[in-house]
Amino acid sequence: MKILIYGINYAPELTGVGKYTGEMAVWLYEQGHEVSVVTAPPYYPEWKVGHHYSAWSYKHEEMQNISVWRCPLYVPDSPTGLKRIIHLASFSILSFPVMVGKLFWRPDVILSIEPPLFCGPTAWMISRICGAKCWLHIQDFEVDAAFELGILSSARISYKVLQIERWLMNKFDIVSTISSQMITRLDTKSVKPEKQVLFPNWVDTALIYPVKSLNIFREQLGILPTDIVFLYSGNMGEKQGLEIIIEAAQKLKGCKEVVFVMCGHGAAYRYLRSSADGLLNMHWLDLQPLGKLNDLLNMADVHLLPQKAGAEDLVMPSKLTGMLSSGRPVLATANNNTQIAEVLSSSGMIVPPGDTTLFINAILELAESGNLRKKLGESARNYAIEHLGVEAVLSQFEKRLRECVAENTNLRTDGTPK
Question: Are residues 147 and 276 both part of a single domain?
Answer without folding.
Answer: no
